[in-house]
């Protein structure tokens, strides 16, 4: 049985192909259009390139698909080509399916938290999903409780105000303190990075602008307007640029601290209701890696699984898997191994060599006998390396196949990459990737973080050893490398360890600021030649820029 899942909302469009319960391929539309989160494409959105991509990976056409599933919050333009064949399901159900059916759990509690999902009617008014709780087991997913929020405007717009949404609150604060991404959307990732530079002075004020009870988060339209007014007023009163920057940092701290409080309390309630020891998370709020780690530390849940594409892109995976298990009637059983996020197509050697040949006059190329030893030496000598291997990873985090890698021991490396390669704000941190068997030597957590969605502390005695990946509060957004998922990345880490005694590398996404992660060899070469990357590794080729 072949099932095509389409995902997204008004952004983060994606497609996934599942065959007999196995994910054949999944990719985000942004990787193909080269437009961040595929927002604002207009009529071009109906091309639905991601669907063609995943079908081509299996040598199929649309006529070979048995079932097409999508969530009903998806921009209808994205589904125009398939509109007469689609089975529509709820947005939060798609999220829940994406994380439970990719988990290793026989039975789990499931929590979905985002900005807003499917529209429902409550007492004659328009509401949108905001928080949903499920249980998952061999029978599938069962909704335990769903929270919704009243929508304040008649049109679906990016600035819609909707009640009872953790995602809205975080994004609203991000916008008010000046963090935007494409199309005027907020940039919560920047807020999370800035939060450790702040102080607690606004934590209680923000906490007074929502209500939290057992399994219930409420924030009225009036409270939401008060959030905006509070930030605007404090910024207006700030005396000078430095004071205004501190206000912004303090509100980043406040919204992060309150989000952590809310998420932990909701998780505690869910545990009391279900008695489950395992928890699955999805929705945009599940990309808050700091809050995710606190769930493990401060609730009775023993294990947590977060699908790497926790945002709206992951609803493509959820839709396809729901099609297999729920609509197709197949019983759920966890896979024997870890869920692999490497779901893009494999670009073969001929394609790589053709892309290189097209720019031969600007490059020098070698194929070393020992690739990882050669690259490890470059890294140890201070090179910033674009690392392109195998199939691209799904989701917003680079997990070692479309990564920029560097030496974490260099205290100036963070500033150098932010300024010269990524062209972004200086405060934004970079993540470490570590060999699984060496994780506890460097980080105060034994829990593997295969998808870079947990933030533990760096051990105090190691912070001076790996300063480039240690945030100002001593934390790090960790990736755990295991040969089961990425043997070549582990081989490179081992080679770097043999040279330096440190089994850790700085790992960030292979892209320039405000552009999608590279997908193809052509994308990688374009980014390499337009930034201050020192070395590019395309499969087994080591590429440098030719002397001018």
UniProtKB/TrEMBL annotation:
Where the record annotates domain Carbamoyltransferase C-terminal, the positions are: 376-545
Task: Name the Pfam families for this protein.
Answer: Carbam_trans_C (PF16861), Carbam_trans_N (PF02543)
InterPro entries, per database record: ATPase_NBD, Carbam_trans_C, Carbam_trans_C_sf, Carbtransf_dom, NodU/CmcH_Carbamoyltrnsfr
Family listed = Belongs to the NodU/CmcH family.
Q: What is this protein called?
A: Carbamoyltransferase
Residue ranges of the Carbamoyltransferase domain?
2-71, 83-321
């Amino acid at each position: 049985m072949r099932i095509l899942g389409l995902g997204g909302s008004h952004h983060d469009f994606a497609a996934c192909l599942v065959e007999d319960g196995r994910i054949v391929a999944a990719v985000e539309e942004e990787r193909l259009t080269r437009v961040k989160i595929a927002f604002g494409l207009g009529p071009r959105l109906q091309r639905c390139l991601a669907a063609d991509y995943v079908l081509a990976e299996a040598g199929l056409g649309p006529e070979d698909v048995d079932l097409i599933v999508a969530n009903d919050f998806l921009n209808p333009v994205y589904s125009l080509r398939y509109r007469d064949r689609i089975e529509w399901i709820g947005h939060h159900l798609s999220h829940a399916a994406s994380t439970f059916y990719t988990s290793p759990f026989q039975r789990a509690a499931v929590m979905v938290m985002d900005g807003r999902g499917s529209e429902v009617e409550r007492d004659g008014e328009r509401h949108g999903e905001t928080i949903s709780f499920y249980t998952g087991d061999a029978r599938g997913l069962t909704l335990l409780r769903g929270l919704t929020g009243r929508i304040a405007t008649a049109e679906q717009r990016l600035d819609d105000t909707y009640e009872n949404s953790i995602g809205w609150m975080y994004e609203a604060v991000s916008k008010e303190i000046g963090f935007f991404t494409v199309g005027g959307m907020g940039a919560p990732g920047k807020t999370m990075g800035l939060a450790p530079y702040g102080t607690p002075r606004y934590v209680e004020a923000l906490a007074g602008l929502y209500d939290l009870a057992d399994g219930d988060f409420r924030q009225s339209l009036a409270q939401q307007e008060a959030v905006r007014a509070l930030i605007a007023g404090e910024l207006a009163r700030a005396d000078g640029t430095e004071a205004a920057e501190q206000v912004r940092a303090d509100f980043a701290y406040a919204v992060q601290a309150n989000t952590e409080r809310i998420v932990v309390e909701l998780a505690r309630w869910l545990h009391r209701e279900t008695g489950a020891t395992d928890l699955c998370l999805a929705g945009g709020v599940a990309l808050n890696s700091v809050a995710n780690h606190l769930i493990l530390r401060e609730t009775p849940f023993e294990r947590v699984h977060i699908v790497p594409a926790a945002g709206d892109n992951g609803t493509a995976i959820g839709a396809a898997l729901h099609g297999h298990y729920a609509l197709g009637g197949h019983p759920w059983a966890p896979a024997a191994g870890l869920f692999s996020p490497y779901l893009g197509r494999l670009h073969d050697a001929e394609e790589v060599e053709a892309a290189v040949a097209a720019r031969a006059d600007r490059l020098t190329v070698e194929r070393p006998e020992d690739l990882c030893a050669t690259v490890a030496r470059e890294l140890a000598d201070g090179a910033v390396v674009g690392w392109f291997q195998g199939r691209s990873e799904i989701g917003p985090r680079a997990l070692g196949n479309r990564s920029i890698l560097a030496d974490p021991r260099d205290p100036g490396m963070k500033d150098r990459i932010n300024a010269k390669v990524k062209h972004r704000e200086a405060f934004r941190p970079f993540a470490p990737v570590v060999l699984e068997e060496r994780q506890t030597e460097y980080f105060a957590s034994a829990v593997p973080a295969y998808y870079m969605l947990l933030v533990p502390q760096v051990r105090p005695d190691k912070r001076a050893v790996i300063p480039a990946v240690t945030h100002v509060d001593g934390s790090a957004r960790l990736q755990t490398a295991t040969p089961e998922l990425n043997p070549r990345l582990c081989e490179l880490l081992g080679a770097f360890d043999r040279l330096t005694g440190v089994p850790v590398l700085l790992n960030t996404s292979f892209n320039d600021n405000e552009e999608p992660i590279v997908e193809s060899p052509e994308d990688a070469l374009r980014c390499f030649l337009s930034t201050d990357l020192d070395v590019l590794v395309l499969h087994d080729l080591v590429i440098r820029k030719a002397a001018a």
